[in-house]
Amino acid sequence: MKIERITIANFGVISELNLDLSGDSGDLVFLNGRNGRGKTTFQSALRWLFYNQEPAESEKFLSNLSFQNASLGSGITVKVSAEISMDQPGVTATIERTQTFVKTQEGLPSRVGYANLQVSTKSSGVDPFTNVLPKPELWLEKYFPERLINFFLFDGELMKDFFERNVRKSIEDAVKEIAGVDLFDEARTNLFTLKESLNRKISKSSGSKAESINTDLETQEKIHNAITKDLSTARERLATNRGLKDEVLKKLAKLEGLGDASARLKRIDEEILENQQNFLTANQEFETELLRIGTTCLLIPSFEELKAQIVQAEADDCLPPKFEPARIKQLLDDEECICGSPLHSGDSKRNKLQEMIVAFSVASDVGKRLESVRRGSESISASTQTSWRYLEEKNEAIPKYEDKLAKLSEEKNSILIELEGQDIDEISTLSGRQRELDSYIELDISTVTRLQVQEENSHSTLKKLQKEFEEASKGNQEAEIYKRQVKWATDLLAAASEIHSMAIQQVRERLQKTVSERFSKVKKGNFHTVITENFQVQTLTADGTELPLSEGERMMKAYIFSIALREVIGLGFPLIVDTPFGRLDEFNRNELAQVLSEFLLKDKTQLNRQVIFLMHDGEYTPYTRKHFEVAKPKEVYLAFEKGFENINSILGEGIDPEWFETSAWKDWAKGNIK
Question: Is the pTM of this model over 0.90?
Answer without folding.
Answer: no
